[in-house]
Design a protein that fits this description.
- The protein is globular and about 85 Å long.
- The chain is 33% helix and 32% strand.
- Strand 14 and strand 15 form a beta hairpin.
- It has 400 residues and is of the alpha+beta class.
Length: 400
Amino acid sequence: MSNIYAALEIGTTRTVLAIGEAKSGERLRVTSHAEIPSTGVRKSQILDISQATTSIRSVLREIEKKQGANGDSLDLSNVFLVVNGQHVKADPYQGTAQVSDGRVTEADIEEVRNSSRLMALPRERELLDIVDQSYELDGLAGISSPKGMSGRVLKLDTLQIHADANRINNARTAAGGVHLEIREPLFSMTCAADAVLSAHDKRNGALVIDLGGGSTGYAVYADGYLVSANVIGVGGDHVTNDIAYAFQTTQSQAEDLKRLESNAIVGGERGASPRVQLTGSSPLMEARAISRRALDTVVNLRLKELFTIIRNELEDQDLTHKLNAGVVITGGGAAQRGIDALIQREFGLPVRTGYPSEVDGFDQTTEAASFASIAGALLYAHRNYEEKSIFKKILKGLFN
């Protein structure tokens, strides 16, 4: 019997719902997914719960139509929520334990792990995840497995990921409006990384950059575990706004210019016309042309600013030299022309687009990179909740 899971993402630009299915011990496959433009959301923050509920209801109906076309009906009861936005923080915390008899035992390891779970969070914060990193024994750091080693004081470094509790509760309320329960909130960056990085990537050091609509997140892996993560409040919407302001266009025109005409590298589109034609946005506005080079410059400047912020943060943490597996880009912004070349220039590292390689059901296209976080959430559910179905699956032929 297959286990079935669902994941929901209420983003700045879109609301996504995906269904994954797998038998015990088998690879997960995404059987259906749907997305619609988000309403009532800005910068990954719900500003109108009724509108957000409407978006969730609409994307749920799209899933129901797809399931119905296959002769199946899934009575959805709860989902895993992908959480993103600048309110998500990742703070280091170290647990400490005294080694009982001078040689580290399983009991000592359990004690230090329990100690590492004692970080106090303010009431307005909700814990999303605790990532165990490496151990330290009497000042010797970087230990992966301390069992049997001699010493007196054992420490465990962790990364504690937490978010604004009110924002998560608002998502719970919005989902509750269509009788959905949020089973567990998950950090979008760790989800994306799990979907696109191999164990080899994580050991050798990799930077995952998720280019979203309202924000951009990053996660750094080295020696097999997450060592740093953050969300920057700059996303694709900022590029669109810059274009609209610079060329006095509507938001819709600016979005089309960004997606269809612009390049992150100035002059990167060889052989392209030096002018980009714009139709009038109203009967009173005449058609006109703008400089392609000027368009590329606007896009380039905003993206360079974003990558400079990320690079400076990594340099401050002395992490850039650990990224031997390079940079992996995900999110809707991965489709931007020239984005890989710009990142390679800014970081001096090899760059590739991140496809959900650990999950079947998404083709290896640039669009698939925008589903990395949702695929990772389904993967988490499959690995941690196997044999605990979150649906009632109705037999084929009953959905008419």
